[in-house]
Write a structure and sequence with these properties.
Elements: E1 4-13, E2 19-27, H1 32-47, E3 51-55, H2 59-68
Antiparallel strand pairs: 1-2, 1-3
Amino acid sequence: MGSCRLWYRVTVVSEEGSEVDWNVGGAGRPTMQAVDTVARLALLARRGGASIRLSEVAPEMRELLDLAGLTLEVPWQAEGGKDPLGVQEGVESGDPPP
């Protein structure tokens, strides 16, 4: 069993500006499950009027976040009012109109 390694530090910032910090890590390298956790935490924070910030991000975690298209500064800034965590649907030729 390997020793626990720091993957990232997360800070939750409330609307009033108060902050709560956690160190997140595990044995070995982070997986996409760790990225899913970050995305879910960001969504929950946003729904509650807060935001999260990541720091001290391990290189392996940074690679996975980049692969998933997530930035380290959360909440993400949406382009043109689009929900950055939402699914964008493409329309193929031959698809029936909505």
